[in-house]
Amino acid sequence: MRDHYVAVLGPDKAVLVRQRRGWNGAFDLKTEAAYDDTPAEAAVATLGKLLSGPEVGSGDLTILLSNHFVRYLLVPWREEIASPQEFETFARICCEQIYGIDSGSVGRILRISRERADSPRLAAVLETPFAGALDLLVAKSRLNLISLQPYLAAAFNRLASETCGNSFFFLVAEPERCCLLAAIDGRWSRVQASASLDQPQALIDLIDREAQLLGLEADAMPPVYIHAPRQARLDLPACNGVKPTTLSLLIPATLAGAADHLLTMAMAAT
What we know:
- The protein is α/β, with parallel strands linked by helices and 270 residues long.
- The chain has a domain at 162-246: ATPase, nucleotide binding domain (Nucleotidyltransferase, domain 5).
- 26% of the residues lie in helices and 31% in strands.
- A five-stranded mixed sheet has the order 3-2-1-4-8.
- Strand 10 (177-184) and strand 11 (187-194) form a beta hairpin.
- The radius of gyration is 19 Å and the shape is globular.
- It starts with a strand and ends with a helix.
- The model has no long low-confidence stretch (mean pLDDT 88).
């Protein structure tokens, strides 16, 4: 077994934690550094400094990206798409239509859901300079990159067992950035990211707005699940008659004294 490192790139700082190999998988390292430049460029440069630290040995690396660095889209089902390459080509076209980004500026498409036939796929988009800089950085490090995960996907995959039913809202509320993923009757129906505070009234307003855009009446409102890494005890009032459920990730006892929201985010990838 190899040591596992998790790097979290937030909008204003990066965090690196290490999970030791062995039967108990203990966490014994947390390093961090703030940015002093534009976020995407500074995030990569800062991560490079953390990975080159003397305390970092060989091992496997997972990079977890704040939703500030990622664009999401639902890629419609097409029966004629038969390979990952064809899916990526089609997803690039969809990205250009939705965001106005030239397909050549899309550095990487991450397919982050594998749904049944006739259902949209959830995908994440990284723009070319950022994706390329990450690739170059990892190639120079002593670590083996095993996963590159957008936080919305990582949080949902980690917490999905706590959701119920085929219809729900899943909201990830980072400071100043919220992403909402909606499933209706077992299909992804909407993914939306926006600048928003991770505060109760702002979140309720966002949920209410998304419900209206989906045409959901009060009696058809699905369960609402909220994960806010900075707000473990977040308590929201009912929205359209549904009381949101807060889902949290636990910090290991060995790191509890250094807890912050980026460390909480790292737990989604462990």
